[in-house]
Amino acid sequence: MKAETFKVACSSCNLRELCMPVGFDQKDMDKLDEVVTTRKKIKQGDMLFENGETFTSLYAIRTGFFKTSIASEDGREQVTGFQMAGEIIGLDGIVNDHHTCNAVALED
Question: pTM, whole model, 2 decimals?
């Protein structure tokens, strides 16, 4: 996976209402911004995760679109979903500790 790591404050993220607990004040948000350090920019066509890969994280899509898919028995790609900004991706990996589909970026 070719991922560029970058730092954008959680307080500036459009998904903060989805991720942050109710009642978080600016002081709490500032503390969180110091702790959360990993953010990745995935380039168009690159995989975020692949089928069979060990589950390590859930991902909040901040910008762009992703496509999830599985390989059918005859080898063709079967699209299982499209995800966009504001959605969480990677839930498929929670139950068995590995991903059951591929997730590819459709945009930079």
Answer: 0.70
Model confidence over 9-68: pLDDT tens digits? 677 777 777 777 677 788 887 777 776 656 788 999 999 999 999 998 888 888 899 999
Q: If you compute the radius of gyration of the chain from its CA atoms, what whole number of angstroms results?
A: 15
CATH superfamily of 3-105: Jelly Rolls (2.60.120.10)
Phi-psi region at 97: left, alpha or beta (left = phi > 0; alpha = psi -120 to 50): left
Structure tokens at 56: 């390590």
Q: Specify whether the CB–CB gap between 81 and 68 falls below 8 A.
A: yes
Q: C-alpha angle 25/29/34, rounded to 5°?
A: 155
Q: Which residues contact 64 (CB under 8 A, 6 or more apart)?
A: 42, 84, 85, 105, 106, 107, 108
- DSSP 3-state of 42: strand
